[in-house]
Amino acid sequence: MDEIQEVLQVSYNGLTRREKEIFLDIAFFFEGENKDFATTILDACGFGATSGIQILEDKALVSISCNRIQMHDLLQKMAFDIVRNDQRLKHSRLKDIEEIHHVLKNNKAADVVEGIQFDLSQKENLHVKAETFNTMVDLRILRLYVPLGKKRLAILSHSDKGIMQFSDKLRYFEWNGYLLKSLPHHFCAKLLVEIHLPHSNVEYLWHGIQELMNLEVINLSECKDLINLPDLSQASKLKWLYLSGCESLCEIQPSIFSKDTLVTLLVDRCPKLEGPKNEKHLRTLQKINVYGCSSLKEFSLSSDSIENRDISNTGVEIFHSSISGMSKLGWLNLEGLELSNLPNKLSCLELLAELQVSYCDIVTKLKLEDVQYFFLSQGFLSKSKCFVLKTALHWSPYPL
């Protein structure tokens, strides 16, 4: 075993400083993660991850399987030992619960910490001092997370009244159940790529306009007290916005669509939300979910890239004419809507193959034998399509 460790150590010693940083970050934070995700964060840290990861793979220090980064247990252990024993690197990356306890509770060596990862599904009590994060001036990665499919068991407490500041160098910020009502007044998101604060107490993130040229992901799912979003007009790379279950959210500013970079927008189960609204026809938006947005009366978003659209159980009463421009739309769910008529523009959707109208006024006010005639007369059962109409009563396939 000692001989194997020596060989591994020789391989590590032959790396450049940049490659060593990538190797250590992967061992602590990105083992088993999607390669593209790891590359994006590491690139944002200035490490040149694409070539760096390739070099590590060539030297058999990592492997790529199904686009996920894998590292052998012996190599990962070596990385942990290197950080623990090298005085220059000691405490720079924290994953061990005892070390995290030591730093967060006692504010020891916080000034050298570059990354923290802690699984909140572990049954642990962590006391967080505001001054500890104030001291972490080099913090790049903060991940206090709950793995998919698990429950949060850890308890984090924050009893002192100090202001909790975060490093301006943060690239990845995840804190499931973030304790405070907002981020600090002077929070700087200039270098931030992803921010995840699900199940948190936040009412807002920050006020005013920030430089957000690197921000790609915002996840505020299940933040029941979230009232509004900040101005995101400067987020020129924003692709994913997750707001599911934000029960107090009333509005989404049209500025999130100004750069036309958004790929996914999830705002399902937001009962007070009256938007989103946008007059501009989009190109990149592929997925949007507004299920259960009971205050949503008009839906005006359209995109070249949306194939499925679920507007069920919302308050939508008006369809914007822009729906006719959704050339790839193949599935449309209108279940539970109080619609007396469908817009004629729907008949222009050549790829529309399935329309769900269960418990929709259009169907519930008609007799069963009149349903087919109604949709034929409105032009929705084109002779060029195999169309499926789903009602509350049955499935009706029409190969016409």
From TrEMBL:
Q: Which residues form the Disease resistance protein Roq1-like winged-helix domain?
A: 18-85
One Pfam family assigned to this protein is: WHD_ROQ1
- Signal peptide range in chain numbering: none
- Give one GO biological process term: defense response
Q: Which UniProt keywords apply?
A: Leucine-rich repeat, Repeat
Q: Which residues cross the membrane?
A: none
In Swiss-Prot or TrEMBL terms, this protein is called Disease resistance protein
Q: Which organism is it from?
A: Trifolium medium
